[in-house]
Amino acid sequence: MAIDPVILFFVLGVAAGLMRSELRLPAPVYELVSMILLLSIGLKGGVELARQPALDLMPQIAAVTVMGIVLTLLAFPLLRGLGRFSRVDAAAIAAHYGSVSVGTFAVAAAYLTYRQIGFEQHMPLFVVVLEIPAIIIGVLLAKGLGRQQAWGRMLHEVLCGKSMVLLVGGLLVGWVAGEDGVQSIKPLFFDLFKGVLALFLLEMGLIAAGHVGGLLRQGLFLLGFGMAMPLIGAVVGTMVALGLGLSLGGTVLLATMAASASYIAAPAAFRLVVPEAKPAFSLATSLGVTFPFNIVLGIPLYHWMAERAQMMKGVW
Amino acid sequence: MAIDPVILFFVLGVAAGLMRSELRLPAPVYELVSMILLLSIGLKGGVELARQPALDLMPQIAAVTVMGIVLTLLAFPLLRGLGRFSRVDAAAIAAHYGSVSVGTFAVAAAYLTYRQIGFEQHMPLFVVVLEIPAIIIGVLLAKGLGRQQAWGRMLHEVLCGKSMVLLVGGLLVGWVAGEDGVQSIKPLFFDLFKGVLALFLLEMGLIAAGHVGGLLRQGLFLLGFGMAMPLIGAVVGTMVALGLGLSLGGTVLLATMAASASYIAAPAAFRLVVPEAKPAFSLATSLGVTFPFNIVLGIPLYHWMAERAQMMKGVW
Amino acid sequence: MAIDPVILFFVLGVAAGLMRSELRLPAPVYELVSMILLLSIGLKGGVELARQPALDLMPQIAAVTVMGIVLTLLAFPLLRGLGRFSRVDAAAIAAHYGSVSVGTFAVAAAYLTYRQIGFEQHMPLFVVVLEIPAIIIGVLLAKGLGRQQAWGRMLHEVLCGKSMVLLVGGLLVGWVAGEDGVQSIKPLFFDLFKGVLALFLLEMGLIAAGHVGGLLRQGLFLLGFGMAMPLIGAVVGTMVALGLGLSLGGTVLLATMAASASYIAAPAAFRLVVPEAKPAFSLATSLGVTFPFNIVLGIPLYHWMAERAQMMKGVW
Amino acid sequence: MVMTAEEGPAKLVSIVTEAAVETLLLREIEAMGIDGYTIADVRGRGTRGRRSGSWDASASIRVDVVCAPVRAEALALRVKERFAPGYALFIFICDAWVP
Amino acid sequence: MVMTAEEGPAKLVSIVTEAAVETLLLREIEAMGIDGYTIADVRGRGTRGRRSGSWDASASIRVDVVCAPVRAEALALRVKERFAPGYALFIFICDAWVP
Amino acid sequence: MVMTAEEGPAKLVSIVTEAAVETLLLREIEAMGIDGYTIADVRGRGTRGRRSGSWDASASIRVDVVCAPVRAEALALRVKERFAPGYALFIFICDAWVP
Ligand SMILES: Nc1ncnc2c1ncn2[C@@H]1O[C@H](COP(=O)(O)O)[C@@H](O)[C@H]1O
Ligand SMILES: Nc1ncnc2c1ncn2[C@@H]1O[C@H](COP(=O)(O)O)[C@@H](O)[C@H]1O
Ligand SMILES: Nc1ncnc2c1ncn2[C@@H]1O[C@H](COP(=O)(O)O)[C@@H](O)[C@H]1O
Ligand code: NA
Ligand code: NA
Ligand code: NA
Question: Which residue spans traverse the membrane (chains A, B, C) (predicted)?
Answer without folding.
Answer: 57-79, 91-111, 123-142, 154-176, 188-208, 220-246, 252-274, 281-302
